[in-house]
Design a protein that fits this description.
elongated, alpha+beta, about 25% strand, single chain, about 50% helix, five-stranded mixed β-sheet
Length: about 150
Amino acid sequence: MKKNLLYILVIFIIVIAIILVHISDKNSKRNEIAKFNVQYEQYFGHTIYGSDVLTMINKAIDNNQENNIPRDENNYYIDDDKSSVKIELVLLSKNDENEVEEKTYSMETLEKAGLSGFITNFNLTPFECSNVEYNSQKRISKITVKQLEL
């Protein structure tokens, strides 16, 4: 009888230990995602400038490189719904009729054109984070930044 009780007690302790390890792992992943998201969420609700946009783009590129996110034939990062981050910029320009138009550019397009040129032209230009998308793991996957003034 004592052996049976001892076996049941050992099995119970093992099950409890497994459950506690699983809960701890889940909390650790949740904290890691929250820590990652705050890098970008700090810009929401505030007017930001070209230097902040460049910082966001550099963080996204670094993230994608660290996580070995593949690129397609046009050199755009492929969304993996896990750890990839994309930034889109909506820039204002005037057309031939002197009307303001919005044009959307990906961070890869700006990277190809040269990020130093972006900072030269848009350093003091105000922007706002107009949209954020999260992947299935509640991790930021896409941010849209919109130019406020021409």
